[in-house]
Amino acid sequence: MRSAKLVILLALALLWPAGFAQGGGPSHARIAFQRSGNNRKGLQIWTMRPDGSYQRRLTRAHIDYNPVWSPDRTKIVFQRLLTDEHVDLFVMNARGRKATRLTTAKNLDGYAAWSPDGGRIAYTRNFKRDGDMTSQIFLMDADGSDVEQLTNSKFSSALPTWSPTGRRIAFISGNACESRRQRKCGTAVYVMQADGTDRERISPFNRTTHAEYPAWSPNGRWIAYDRTGDCCLHTGIYLVRPSGAKHHRITNNVV
């Protein structure tokens, strides 16, 4: 069955050469990243100092990727491709020990985001709904318990990111274009309360552009995101207020 739902790039993450996240205080900062194995098959999670020294491999024997440090820098949540071709979220300590499975997905769980206090994790779940694939945002306690679904619209939603106060979550939502005749497709940036209420679109929504990877400024006054489109004039990094005001482009991705 043809699906008009946006299936967010969970599977494509396996093709990325590296992903990283920084953790640790000024005197012992380390960067977590993913690296292909020596045989160029699979991905593993490593850490290193910001200057590239003291590289340490944390995982092995699985395909692990998209590491994210906890706010207190003691844990790393990451995605693991299992032998049954399901992707679930796992968490381990900063030395790669005590890996614990957090989710049991029928399809894909990924793109985890820790709440600022480290108590909860928002993430994207990709699953079948009414015969089609959809992506929606879920929330759980940091130990994998108390799971709840935050979004359940006809459009797919993904890539949650917390405001610095932990009160709101920015994310992307929209529909994939399968033909030029479709009008209601493309993706935009949305903001909602941390409990999934008061959902509001804050960036333009049209079928020629896609918004990706929203990120809050440290003071919570701006949200940056990447926008791609069919026309080079629409691509680049954009800034927008959480209210949707003062939307403007700050880079131009013309190559």
How many helices? The count is 0
How large is the radius of gyration? 18 Å
Q: For the report, how would you describe the main beta sheet?
A: 4 strands, antiparallel
Q: What's the average pLDDT?
A: 84
Please provide the count of β strands: 20
Q: What's this model, at a glance?
A:
By secondary structure, the protein is mainly β.
Describe this protein with a few key phrases:
single chain; 255 residues; mainly beta; 4-stranded antiparallel sheet; 20 strands; disordered N terminus
Summarize the structure in words.
With 255 residues, this protein is mainly β. Helices cover 0% and strands 46% of the residues. It contains no helices and 20 strands. It has a four-stranded antiparallel sheet with strand order 1-2-3-4, with no helix packed on it. Strands 5-6-7-8 form a four-stranded antiparallel sheet, with no helix packed on it. It is globular, with a radius of gyration of 18 Å. The termini are far apart. Residues 1-19 have low confidence and may be disordered.
What's the layout of helices and strands?
Elements: E1 20-23, E2 30-36, E3 43-48, E4 56-57, E5 63-69, E6 75-81, E7 87-93, E8 100-101, E9 108-114, E10 120-129, E11 132-141, E12 148-149, E13 156-162, E14 168-175, E15 186-193, E16 200-201, E17 209-216, E18 223-229, E19 236-240, E20 248-249
Antiparallel strand pairs: 1-2, 2-3, 3-4, 5-6, 6-7, 7-8, 9-10, 10-11, 11-12, 13-14, 14-15, 15-16, 17-18, 18-19, 19-20
